[in-house]
Amino acid sequence: MPAKQTWMTWGKRVLTLLFIILIPALLYSLARNLDWNEVRDSLMAYKPSTLAIGLGIAACSYAVFASYDLLARAYTGHKLPARQVLPVAFVCYAFNLNFTTWVGGVALRYRLYGRLGLDNATITRILTLGLLTNWMGYMLVAGSVFALRQVQLPDNWAVGVTGLQLIGMAMLAVVAAYLLACGLAKRREWSIRGHEITLPSLRLALCQVALGGSNWLLMAALIWWLMPQEVFFPSVFGVLMISCVAGVVAHIPAGLGVLETVFLALLQGQLSQGNLVAALLGYRTLYYLIPLVIAVITYLVLEKRAKALRKQTETQPARP
User: Cα 183 to chain center, whole Å?
Assistant: First the structure.
């Protein structure tokens, strides 16, 4: 057996072992750090119809996010059917939200897509397009809200309303530059450190921006829906955009504490602290915890199917 193949075989075994250890450890850590009584009380305060509609909004958001990987299928040209792509994307998104991008967005994607037969280069392109879709959509909708001064910052914040407006304009400029490059650039391919980067078509880039922006709007819509009184939606959306950046910078799994801190700081004049915390707990339950439970079950099913498929392949006689 060649040395390279031997290292790849051992690498896959080590990765498998890490997942066997890491995922239960992460789930245990999350369960231990949550106040389940508080989660239960926050949900009991809502009408069943409110929670049902909230779950519907969350489901729509996850469906939109999973569609990123369908765009990536068109971009890379791989032949996996949607019935295999969508469950993988859903599982990765749920783990990404709860356990950081490195676990859900990167490691889990390589493992699940690799077990479905895709090579690392294709998986890297899927991952890259998904990241671009997410953040180009973010820049479009967040940039619009910031540029229109829809978020009122406290006086003691260093950025200020004007500074945030300039940041929003810069975000919109980045989106415009990306779309122009996809539509007008004559050179479509670059090689960076041995990795080939190909610009998507303008049509695909427009789909990226539309899907990415829609997902962020649905996330904000869920928080807004769970708030007990009328709050200006663009304000809720703008605060969510700021809290997401703060969560990325803090690099805390699920942004625990970061989301709540930013919302309390920026909306304390519009809602009581108790109502705001209850809405955020409801949001975490509907958008993070319930999908995570479903994702864990789906992940186990995917692993079982991949194992059965591998055994079936190994038992088939070799073709002459």
Answer: 26
